[in-house]
From TrEMBL:
This is PIN domain-containing protein. Gene3D superfamilies: 5'-nuclease. InterPro entries: PIN-like_dom_sf, PIN_dom. It comes from the Bacteria. Residues 6-98 form the PIN domain. SUPFAM superfamilies: PIN domain-like (SSF88723). Pfam families: PIN.
Length: 105
């Protein structure tokens, strides 16, 4: 998990054009807070190696730009922390050769 994913979750769940009955920001934050209490959940944060890892990934994958930067940030954090597998319906992550994508459905 990353903070940007958690904030994106909050963006979607509070958006009236996305949700028929959008949550309030406090409701979404309460859910995020409950998730963060899970003993099996860790939040990946940048370390002092982040710039080097990001530069390496951008060098290897020069197509990263625009809307792909958000997914690249997640993939870079994964590489930085040695995480290889992501469970997601977002097929864009298949573009990162160092990430194994598992479709949860």
């Amino acid at each position: 998990m990353t903070w940007s994913i958690l904030y994106e979750f909050m963006r979607v769940t509070t958006h009236p054009r996305v949700m028929r009955k959008p949550w309030t920001a406090p409701q979404a934050m309460a859910f995020v807070s409950a998730l963060l209490q899970s003993p099996g959940l860790g939040v990946l944060v940048a370390t002092d190696r982040h710039v080097r890892v990001a530069a390496q990934v951008v060098s290897e994958l020069p197509w990263i730009s625009g809307n792909r930067v958000h997914d690249a940030h997640t993939a870079i954090l994964m590489r930085e922390h040695g995480v290889r597998r992501i469970c997601t319906r977002d097929s864009d992550f298949r573009r990162f050769p160092f990430v194994e994508v598992v479709d949860p459905l």
